[in-house]
Design goal:
The complex is a heterodimer of chains A (114) and B (118). In chain A, 0% of the residues lie in helices and 57% in strands. Chain A is mainly β and 114 residues long. In chain A, strands 2, 4, 5, 9, 10 and 11 form a 6-stranded mixed β-sheet that branches. A 5-stranded antiparallel β-sheet of chain A has the order 1-3-8-7-6, with no helix packed on it. Classes of the chains: A mainly beta (114), B mainly beta (118).
Chain lengths: 114, 118
């Protein structure tokens, strides 16, 4: 049972435009959500996170939106740059219930075209 | 480099041999997590450890796999009698504390160990 889903395996965006990556989850106990970026042959790099008490968190070009009623989160990258080309993973955990392990989606490969 | 360190970066073993993967957490972090990524898949949780304690091993295969985080030294993920299906990237992550405050639980990942079983 895939509790965290990224339904788009790939996305291509023109440089300077907005990239929107989506993630859906099924477990209502999840209360902490994160996005990681991963280059080939490297480990995931933490990008941005959001707690379930918020619906938006912004850090520079990166904004994460959380819609708890829809069990949906999204990552917006504005403006997109060629260096953003990587695989993006969303992850979720249920911290308040003492479960610190992360459940990851299967990733979306973003390609930013120059 | 104050990040999470993993070694070796690449490990080749023949079927039936043992694989030992090492992880040193970020400075000041006392919680270690191991994840496995099979080709074309996401990362799957294996085990969560604190110093000298296994907290959650719900993702560990029941046989051949073990993990430890001793009082001194790195965390070790040990795979005995490896099989071809063990070929994967193994990632270690660390976090600051177990206070329950989400931001302090953010996990930072190492570069991974790529295990190839021939």
């Amino acid at each position: 049972d895939q509790q965290v889903k990224q339904n788009s395996p790939s996305l291509s965006v023109q440089e300077g435009r907005i990239s929107i990556l989506n993630c859906d989850y099924t477990n209502s106990m999840f209360d902490y959500f994160l996005w990681y970026k991963k280059y080939p042959a490297e480990g995931p790099t933490f990008l941005i996170s959001i707690s379930s008490i918020k619906d938006k968190n912004e850090d520079g070009r990166f904004t994460v939106f959380l819609n708890k009623s829809a069990k949906h989160l999204s990552l917006h990258i504005v403006p997109s740059q060629p260096g953003d080309s990587a695989v993006y993973f969303c992850a979720a955990s249920a911290v308040a219930s003492g479960t610190y392990k992360y459940i990851f989606g299967t990733g979306t490969r973003l390609k930013v075209l120059a | 480099n104050a990040g999470v360190m993993q070694n070796p970066r690449h490990l080749v073993r023949r079927r039936g041999q043992e694989a030992r993967l090492r992880c040193s957490p970020m400075k000041g972090h006392s919680h270690v997590y191991w994840y496995r990524q099979l080709p074309e898949e996401g990362l799957k949780f294996m085990v969560y450890l604190q110093k000298e304690n296994i907290i959650d091993e719900s993702g560990m295969p029941k046989e051949r796999f073990s993990a430890e985080f001793p009082k001194e030294g790195p965390s070790i993920l040990r795979i005995q009698q490896v099989v071809r299906g063990d070929s994967a990237a193994y990632f270690c992550a660390s976090s600051l504390s177990g206070t329950g405050f989400p931001r302090e639980e953010t996990q930072y990942f190492g570069p991974g160990t790529r295990l190839l079983v021939l």
